[in-house]
Specification:
Structural class: alpha+beta
Low-confidence stretches: 758-763
Strand order of the largest sheet: 2-5-1-6
């Protein structure tokens, strides 16, 4: 490691060529980086619940849908009924659409005594007001329609669109469907001011669309802010341009790695470019901060001077790159592919930043005239007075500061204990976003668009002709409907109850399960429609209950699913195999795995990074002290989350691992300098003072850059990403406080205590 500065500065041309040859293949892959138009990748690997859910979809058909809803007080009039028919036909003509359901094409069961028939609900559009009122009444008296196709007040209608999912892995079909849908709806704006689209198809595409918008903002804004920061810190055009060149190559290589590994830009990996840009600048700042004229005076030869600068910072920079890479790579234990992909590319970015900072940047520095990049005391004066005041305060009141820190930690632990584990997909979007407004519109007037399925299976064919087994389905539906946020349940039983009622001259008393297997079989002979295919197999040995919920929070969904499972476990199941599944179950499983995965990752990262620190600092005592400034920001972060009611979700769960890997960087630089001073036989207070004055400016600059890097995420369209960026920026500030204030104060308080006891201490 120590030979690298010598080799690079004595053979700069070779180093430059090797760097360019190394980065060329990655840059060549840069144009092939792909984004995705969906979030289908957000699933658990090798999960039995995923496999079971897939088997249910293979049996009963895909359950993905979205609704087109609109409202009008005169819905049951010829113009609006004509509109529903036209929209149903037009939406059904979109190539990727499998099926469309609306009042225009839904079947209607109409009966008399001992007879019923199945006919389209809207056979024709009547002109007579009496007929129109009859049509409205029939719609509102049909339970299968209410909440699905028509609101309870009859003023809002929904057209349900079921996409034909691609067998080829083409995830762009949602984009094409929604583009077609938008064009179709625009043709009818003269009659309806506003259409509302909601459902997984819309949510899925919106997540990917907003992600692309984030990428378009993150990179240029990060460049702008970082350029301004470098300029403000160094006030040197050449150093600013060289820093930009270094982070551009590093970021380009990291982005090229996306394509090399077959990784796409998704909602998680989108964070990587601004993160790598900010971190790549860290090593650069530490190199630039040591380009001092006194170094040049001691070694007039520019190559020798730069060699001494690199020799001074290469080991701490290597350790910071290593610990940050370990922090990122620890996330690879996750079972969620996007988190794994984030771990791989972010860790690779840390390798690139070290390579280019010490192989590419030095040759470029040697191309500049030394007097144009080395600086004197005037630049140090910018930070010097503030740092001296800080040192004096810390050394004057170490015990008071330690007490304040202790109180802050206790308060943060208490506040952190109130944090809820919660991922609410609806709250991913801002209140003002169209998707959230449309979802609110649909769910307050119709039914929730979240789904849970219950699978009921028998070993016997025609098992679900039995009233006893049908009663099991009905009992589960009745229980589910008592739970909060359950808007609608549907099953084969609902169709049979409609048939039974129609068969008894539309008498509402007969809206019950038919009393005998023979009567069920008779109804099915009369029922000439394929609507029941989504709820029971042709052999009648496998049935499904569809539950529509408006609960989008993972904790609420988990409570609902747990209650449903407990009820099923306690009921008389008539020998049926019953299992709860569906999209909500997958979401809850992902969140659970994600959060526990983060805890495991944090434990792994903390253990490995601590080991590295112990080995690098060659002291158990110093290694233990190094944990203080790194645990401190994490505790404060959880305290802030608890105090502000920010939940632990898919994004905020990443903060601890990411922050630990980054926060330890400043600690390494600080304690390396402290150890160097102690090796020169300085006292503890003097060594702490000199370490703060020597490294303080660079630590402040890198922390400022990281705050900017994370602060860019505040421009995101996603609330969790905004929370991640804001909290991470706060962590970077508290980590700086931990290194320059908390750690020295505790060391001094401990040192004085031991000295007053006459025990003496060597730390």
């Amino acid at each position: 490691m120590n030979r690298i500065p010598t080799l690079v500065t004595r053979h700069p041309f070779i180093s430059l060529i090797l760097s360019l040859l190394f980065v060329a293949p990655f840059l060549a892959h840069l144009p092939h980086v792909q984004t995705v138009d969906n979030v289908d990748y957000f699933t658990l690997e090798d999960d039995p619940d995923v496999a079971f859910y897939d088997s249910i979809k293979a049996t009963f058909g895909e359950d993905e849908f979205f609704v087109v809803a609109f409202t009008h007080p005169d819905l049951f009039t010829p113009p609006f009924l004509t509109l529903i028919v036209a929209l149903t036909d037009q939406l059904g003509s979109i190539p990727e659409v499998r099926e469309v359901q609306s009042l225009a094409n839904v079947d209607f069961i109409h009966g008399e005594q001992d007879y019923f028939e199945v006919r389209p609900f809207l056979e024709r559009i009547p002109e007579d007001p009496v007929e129109l009122e009859t049509l409205r009444r029939q719609a509102l008296e049909t339970p299968l329609y209410v909440g699905n196709l028509i609101s309870e007040d009859g003023r809002t209608t929904a057209i349900a669109v079921f996409p034909q999912l691609s067998d080829t892995g083409d995830g762009s079909f949602r984009k094409r469907i929604l583009e077609h849908t938008t064009v179709i709806l625009e043709e009818h704006r003269d009659l309806v001011d506003e259409f509302h689209l909601a459902g997984w198809t819309v949510t899925n595409f919106s997540l990917s669309r907003y992600m692309k918008a984030d990428v378009a903002v993150f990179i240029p804004v990060t460049y702008l802010f970082i350029t301004l920061t470098i300029w403000l810190v160094f006030r040197n055009l050449r150093l600013t341009l060289l820093a930009l060149a270094n982070i551009s190559v590093c970021t380009g290589a990291t982005m090229g790695m996306f394509s090399v590994l077959g990784i796409t830009l998704n909602n998680v990996t989108t964070i990587v470019p601004p993160l790598v840009m900010a971190l790549a600048l860290g090593d650069t700042v530490h190199i630039f901060s040591n380009l001092k004229t006194n170094v040049l005076r001691r070694s007039p030869d520019p190559a020798r001077a730069l060699e001494s600068v690199l020799a001074k910072v290469i080991m701490p920079c290597f350790l910071t790159s290593l610990t940050t890479a370990v922090g990122f790579f620890s996330l690879s234990v996750s079972h969620v592919p996007p988190i794994k992909e984030f771990a791989y590319v972010a860790a690779a970015g840390m390798v690139f930043k070290f390579i280019f900072s010490f192989l590419l940047l030095p040759p470029l520095l040697l191309l500049c005239k030394p007097e144009s990049i080395y600086f004197g005391q005037d630049r140090e004066r910018r930070f010097g007075p503030a740092l001296r005041r800080l040192v004096n305060a810390v050394q004057g009141y170490p015990r008071s500061i330690s007490m304040i820190v202790a109180l802050l930690v206790v308060g943060s632990v208490w506040a952190g204990s109130t944090i809820q584990v919660e991922t609410n997909l609806l709250e991913y979007f801002k209140y003002s976003s169209p998707i959230r407004q449309s979802l609110d519109f649909v769910e307050t007037r119709l039914s929730g668009v979240g789904t849970v399925d219950v699978s009921l299976k028998s070993q016997d064919k025609e098992a679900f002709l039995s009233p006893e087994n049908l009663g099991v389905i009905e009992n589960i539906q009745h229980f589910a409907e008592t739970l909060p946020h359950v808007d609608k349940t549907m099953s084969f039983v609902d169709f049979l109850k409609d048939m039974n009622k129609a068969f008894h001259d539309e008498d509402a008393m007969f809206h019950v399960i038919p009393y005998s297997r023979e009567l069920v079989a008779q109804y099915l002979l009369l029922y000439d429609s394929d609507d029941i295919d989504d709820f029971v197999t042709m052999e009648y040995d496998h049935a499904r209950i569809l539950i529509r919920i408006s609960e989008h929070g993972s904790s609420g969904q988990a409570v609902f699913i747990d209650a449903l499972r407990k009820f099923i476990d306690m009921m008389d199941r008539q020998g049926l195999e019953i299992r709860v599944t569906g999209r909500a179950v997958q979401d809850v499983n992902i969140i659970d795995d994600l959060v526990w995965g983060q805890i495991h990752s944090l434990a792994i990262a903390a253990a490995v990074i601590s080991l590295i620190m112990f080995l690098a600092l060659r002291s158990v005592r110093i290694g233990a002290l190094s944990l203080i400034p790194n645990i401190f920001p994490l505790v404060i972060n959880f305290g802030i989350m608890g105090a502000l009611g920010i939940p632990l979700n898919t994004s905020t769960a990443l903060i601890s691992v990411v922050a630990l890997g980054i926060a330890v960087d400043d600690t390494i630089h600080f304690l390396t300098e402290y150890n160097r001073r102690r090796a020169d036989r300085m006292s503890i207070p003097d060594a702490l003072r000199e370490a703060t004055l020597e490294k303080g400016a660079a630590l402040c600059a890198t922390s400022m850059i990281l705050v900017i890097g994370f602060g860019v995420l505040l421009f995101s369209n996603f609330v969790p990403t905004i929370s991640f960026g804001g909290l991470s920026a706060v962590v970077m500030v508290t980590a700086l406080v931990g290194d320059l204030v908390v750690l020295p104060a505790i060391m001094l308080a401990f040192h004085r205590g031991r000295a007053e006891d006459g025990m003496g201490v060597r730390v």
